Amino acid sequence: MTRATIEVIEADITTLNVDAIVNAANETLLGGGGVDGAIHRAAGPDLLAACRALPEVRPNVRCPTGQARITPGFRLPAKYVIHTVGPVWEGGDEGEAELLANCYRESLRLAWEHDVRSIVFPAISCGVYGHPLTAAVALAVREVRGFLRRETTPGHVVFCCFGATVTAAYRRLLQN
Ligand code: APR
Fold first, then answer.
1. Can you give the pTM of this predicted structure?
2. Mutate which of 35, 125, 139 to test ligand 1's pocket (most atoms within 8 Å of Cβ)?
3. What is the CATH number of the domain that holds 165?
């Protein structure tokens, strides 16, 4: 079994020509700021239409926190967008770590189901949602490594960082 590869890059995720990029969305899946806003701007209006067409599991909720949904990438170079909703940091006693771990697991499960070979994650919940960076990065690396011990698809996982601080946090961990 050829081992999958994990890479850290510093880039704008919307520019990457890969099978799937992961969007750090909110439960409405109707766009927002941060990476969500960048992905919708780059993908064009068809992405919003595709998200709006996804069924609501309850009023205004198409993707509950910790779950993931997949759509085409439309104008993006990426074939798919996997939308996942990270937890809002509320101090650490509200199950945030488990919910964030589920974001990685569910995104990887969707990637596996769609035979995605290369998947790129932003630092989910580390922006507006305020998750402490070091803990979120350690959790992301742990979840990806755990998944890749069991599966060979996706064969390439990229942590796409926006800024030197996040890049350094991932690089510090992955060099070990
Ligand atoms: N490419 C890669 N990473 C990016 C980009 C980009 N173009 N833009 C922002 N980021 C990084 C941020 O710097 C941060 O490290 O993505 C990480 C996640 O930050 P947010 O986008 O703020 O996502 P999150 O913290 O999960 O908050 C989600 O913000 O945009 C809204 O609709 C979204 O309500 C949801 C909330």
1. 0.98
2. 35
3. 3.40.220.10
Q: How far is the CA of 156 from the centre of ligand 1 (A)?
A: 22
Lookup result for tokens 């766009």: 31
Q: How many CB atoms lie within 10 A of CB 44?
A: 13
Question: Which residue from 134, 125, 138 is spatially nearest to 89, judged by alpha carbons?
Answer: 125
What is the layout of strands, in order, in the sheet containing 20-25? 5-10, 156-161, 118-121, 20-25, 80-85, 68-72
So what's the pLDDT on residue 33? 97
**Separation of CA 32 and ligand 1 centre (Å):** 9
The domain total for the chain is 1
Q: In terms of residue numbers, what domain contains 160?
A: 5-174
How far apart are alpha carbons 112 and 37 in whole angstroms? Answer: 26
Write out residues in the chain with pLDDT < 70, as ranges. Answer: 1, 176
**Which protein residue's CA is at the shortest distance from atom 7 of ligand 1?**
12
Q: For residue 1, what pLDDT is reported?
A: 60
What is the distance in A from the centroid of ligand 1 to the CA of 127?
5
Protein residues whose CB sits closer than 6 Å to any atom of ligand 1 = 12-14, 24-26, 32-38, 86, 122-129, 160, 162-163, 166
* pLDDT (0 to 100) of residue 136: 98
